[in-house]
Amino acid sequence: MKSIAIIPARMNSSRFPGKPMAKINGMPMVEIVYENVKKCKMLDEVFVATCDHIIYEHILKIGGKAIMTSNKHNRCTSRCAEALKKIEKIYNKKIKIISMVQGDEPMINSKMINQSIAPLINDKSKNIINLLGKIENKNEFMSKNSIKVTYDRNLKALYFSREPIPYDIGIHKKYYGKQVCVISFRREFLLKYQALKTTEYEKSESIDMLRFLENGIDVHFARTNETSHAVDTPLDLKKVEKLIKK
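Below the sequence we write its predicted structure tokens.
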């Protein structure tokens, strides 16, 4: 297998307990994400990585593939790194590219997966590609659930924050946006994440990618114009349900 997707999901969310199995139009959210990701033709396989048997068993029930991981992970990226090691052991193969797709992004589609993987194929100097989305309105800009980003002229990440950055949108509008939680890695960099110690900004912001930036490792962005809306609260669930119906 050259490229796979891993969807990290856990029931013990502080803001919305049980959200992977919360239903959107009658279907558990994690199943919607799984089915959407499966449509990407650039992927050889898709796995759900979880520490919860209810998620694991549901994915197997629908004919999917799931990997049980430790319940000690505080970061979804480290959960995916553990899952990768187990997947490679099962298949006795090293995987080149891994796309991490958050289990609370039910509006993710195959085009977005392609957009995150393509730069790794086309440019050998890049190792981590995070999708960059548009901030739709002021509420989203101010929300701590929306991760704002700044980046340089080469789409290299400068900082990720739950606070509204940069200060003056009008001046910096070309260089800000939001993190869309589709992140593709070369194998060694996903594994490197787990080997690095937790960093101060990472803890402060509760954002995985800051561990890389604080260790001097570049994270690049790839733009997407596709609509996305992460589910962090029950209210988000209702919003997404309406968007999907449209």
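The longest strand covers residues 176-186.
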